[in-house]
Design brief:
By secondary structure, the protein is of the alpha+beta class. The chain contains eight helices and 21 strands. The protein has a 15-stranded antiparallel sheet that branches. The N and C termini lie close together (5 Å). 40% of the residues are buried.
Length: 358
């Protein structure tokens, strides 16, 4: 089972004793892990729009995504569960395809190239910086020959538990459950199959097939469609402009700048908060019990992030975080915490999710 845990790390850093029973409650079930085929954690790539984040495996599957914020309940939770707990897979039908990946320049635009016996395609994944409605955009681009592809979309709100109501409406496919709505827009014909949205299509050299998944509040109408190519251009400009102001002049410049881009992706733009990581419930070591929820603003972790950013000339993030901090800890110093929500929330309850293997 997965544990959304903050209290144990809180106790450890405060010098408190943590009972064996508490440690057991934070464990993630080694037996379940051993019986599951998983993507290695190092084989996931990170996407962000500076308000939330996604993790994409080498197999072309988005296995972790929380909308609309870093610390919102996930709609894709295969990372800490199974595919049935939510994922979005786009991959060749040829399982023997070879895979290479890279980020485009100093951006969080991921390019995954699949090479098969019939040709090659490039899968371009990114999250455009946005206002109210977050998007994740996936563009399949033909590189050589003609490649048969398949798409599987499994939406499970509330950490892989809630099956949405799915319907075709207007120019997209809507998935709704409670306050959450998602709309998928693509020119490819989709169909429902075993509570999964699937599609098969072919991509020839020079062709581009877009998929756009957008979150919205379910009591509202779906937002207007975005242009995927325009969003790609704007996203590339955003990240290149930001990275272009880097003042790091020391050794290992390329690695430093790429790391800074990741740290920027962990900032929460509306408030200036900085999350420690995009994930929860992943143990620090296999079989370990330290599986805290890092999607919050841990003051110590944020300090290290700011130290790295400011040393390279990124002072606006420091100003924004200072404003967040002053608002968040306002009041009695005796009530100061070691972590807060991205908007300064103080009550962050811990709970266990029994339907996820961990």
């Amino acid at each position: 089972m997965a544990s959304l845990s903050t209290n144990e790390r809180w106790d450890r850093e405060a010098g408190r004793d943590v009972s064996r029973e508490a440690r057991r409650g934070a464990s993630v079930g080694a037996g379940a892990r051993a019986n599951r085929k998983t993507v290695k954690i190092e084989d996931y790539a990170f996407l962000s729009d500076t308000q939330t984040a996604a993790l994409v495996g080498r197999n072309g599957s988005v296995d972790w995504l929380c909308f609309p914020r870093f610390d919102s309940p996930s709609c894709f939770a295969a990372l800490i569960g199974e595919p049935k707990n939510g994922r979005w897979l786009i991959t060749p039908t040829d399982d023997s395809a070879t895979v290479t990946r890279k980020y485009r320049g100093y951006t969080l635009i991921l390019e995954t190239t699949f090479e098969t016996k019939d040709g090659a395609v490039r899968l371009i994944d990114f999250m455009p910086p946005r206002g109210t409605n977050p998007d994740i955009v996936r563009i399949v681009e033909g590189v050589d020959g003609k490649v048969s592809m398949r798409m599987e979309l499994i939406v499970r709100f509330d950490y892989g538990d809630v099956v949405p109501w799915v319907r075709k409406c207007g120019d997209g496919l809507e998935a709704i459950a409670g306050p959450n709505g998602l709309v998928l827009r693509t020119p490819i014909e989709t169909r429902g199959e075993d509570l999964t949205t699937v599609a098969e299509f072919e991509v020839a050299k020079g062709e581009r097939v877009p998929f756009v998944l957008t979150w919205y509040q379910s009591h509202n109408r779906p937002p207007r469609a975005i242009n995927p190519d325009h969003a790609l251009r704007d996203t590339e400009k955003y990240w290149n402009d930001w990275a272009g102001s880097c003042r790091h002049g020391g050794k290992w410049g390329d690695a430093v700048k790429r790391s800074l881009v990741v740290l920027k992706g962990l900032t929460y733009a509306p408030t200036g908060g900085i999350v420690a990581a995009a994930t929860t419930s992943l143990p620090e070591k296999i079989g370990g019990v330290r599986n805290w929820d890092y999607r919050y603003c841990w003051l110590r972790d944020a300090t290290f992030t700011l130290f790295a950013l400011t040393r390279s000339g990124f002072v606006e993030e420091a100003r924004a975080w200072r404003g967040w901090l002053l608002r968040t800890i306002a009041g009695s110093p005796a009530q100061m915490q070691i972590l807060y929500g991205t908007r300064g929330e103080r009550r962050l309850p811990e709970f266990e999710i029994e339907w996820l293997a961990g």
